[in-house]
Structures are given as structure tokens and as C-alpha cells.
Amino acid sequence: xxxxxxxxxxxxxxxxxxxxxxxxxxxxxxxxxxxxxxxxxxxxxxxxxxxxxxxxxxxxxxxxxxxxxxxxxxxxxxxxxxxxxxxxxxxxxxxxxxxxxxxxxxxxxxxxxxxxxxxxxxxxxxxxxxxxxxxxxxxxxxxxxxxxxxxxxxxxxxxxxxxxxxxxxxxxxxxxxxxxxxxxxxxxxxxxxxxxxxxxxxxxxxxxxxxxxxxxxxxxxxxxxxxxxxxxxxxxxxxxxxxxxxxxxxxxxxxxxxxxxxxxxxxxxxxxxxxxxxxxxxxxxxxxxxxxxxxxxxxxxxxxxxxxxxxxxxxxxxxxxxxxxxx
Length: 327
Known about the structure:
The chain is α+β, with helices and mostly antiparallel strands. It has helices spanning 2-21, 23-36, 40-44, 48-66, 78-87, 93-114, 120-158, 168-185, 199-206, 208-225, 249-267, 291-308, 319-326; strands at 189-196, 231-234, 239-245, 277-284, 312-314.
């Protein structure tokens, strides 16, 4: 069959190239076939807009591989595209196999319709090349799908599902890393703890879903305000902590004020004021270099700000730091 493939390859390339120009038509034929083999419930749940947007590129990947001397060397992004196509269904390797098989059938059917002079020998040669291409795309797609699932599992282990911020476990890992950099290289960093005032009243008056929306808005305001190198994590029901590398207490004072305004703007209903927050700020090494103390000091400073009706408060230095300075 390999010799047959080589003999028929020149004319096959031309036919495949012509088909590639009509990849939208092939995509339509594939989608019609998908609808025919699906139940009414499955059809109702099909993301047809997303399929129509992604499918032509996957068909182009298959045709490009079939027309190549090295079908296993796929175009950049092919694995990601076919994995994405599978995830529009159930996101399993079986989905990749089934949908690529459907693409193969659509292409062969289109070839027969396109060329009345297509002989059995040439068709067999094209089928061999197409099978090799589908196999290569399938293998790459499965690898891409596995990589996606691994990334999602890793993300779920570190991301808070409600706010999209990091969770407390990730914050502790980041804080440990920041302390290691400080102790080895003298790099400073700061922590900021933010608490939403009146969130319990929102939950009581409008339900838990309203409070969740407020938290999501607060998280969005935080992400828009901090730097890309900063780490923002949800550390409690209505608390957010920001770890800011290479920032001192004065820098965090400016950030605290910006966050107060950002949260007000993001959570404000039409013609009403937005939510208020209270923030506690602590810096390393100004206030200490112990992880538990820094987190507790930032939390205490936040509660002092809340009790005083102020937007933020600075933490007190650790006792051992004060003793060393008096000597």
C-alpha cells in the first residue's frame, strides 16, 4: 500500500489542495452528519456556533497532513485544535477518534463527488494518506486532551472556584517562596488583607447568590488593580489576600487606596454607592519575617481598620524586631 501511495501522490496532492479550499463546505457536511447521528436531546445541547468556528481549522489540519510527505509533522496548534473539538462533546479520546473518522468519511465522499475520473487506484492511495494523517492528528489530539485535563486538575487544586483567585494553599506556597527569596537575597515583599464590609447584610437581605456576585465583583476589581507579578488569593469567606513582591509598606499604602476605589466602582449599582472594604497591610522585613506572624498581623490590622471605620491600617512590627532596634 505504501508503493501505491507514492505512485498516486502527485494527483492526490492536487485533489486534496482543492478540497482544502472548500473546508467550510466539508465542515458543513460533517456537521450535518453529526446531527443525523445524534438524538434530539444531544442536538439541543450541541454548541453548533463553536463547532462551526473550530471545525474548518481541524479539517485543514487533516488535509495538510494528508498532503504532506511527513503526515506526523503537524501544523502548529493542530493538537490543541482537535482537543478543543473533542471537548465540545464529552472531551474524551473516543470523541477524537469518532469525529476524525467522520472527517475522513466526509473527505472521501467529497473526493468521489468532485472527480468522476477518480479511479480505484488513486482513491486507495488517497485513502492511505488520509488514514496516516488522521492517525497522526488523532495521536496529537489525545496528547493535547490529556495535557488540557492535567492543566485543569492542577488549576482546580490552586484556584478558588467562585472568585477565580488563588486559594489559601497556593497563597501559603507563594508566601514560603517569597520568604525564601528574602532570607537568601534580601528581597522584600508585602501582604495586604482585604475584607468586604457588610457582606453578611447582603446575604441576609438578598440571598447567598447576591453575596457571591459581590465577591466575584470584588475579585475582578482586585485582579484589575494589582500587578501581574502579584498573587491574589481568597483566604476566607469574604477575605482576599494580596502578596506583592518587591513592595514596601509605602507602596502598599498606595495600592490599598486604589483597591478601595476599585471595589467601590466595580460593585456600585446604578445611582447607588458601591461596597466598602477594610484592608490591613504588612511588609517584610519592616514588620517581621515569619509567615504566620505576617498573616496574623495583616489580619489584625484589617480588623483595626474596620473597627475605626478607616479604609486601611498598617500592621505593628513584630515584638522581636522592636527589641532589636532598642539595643
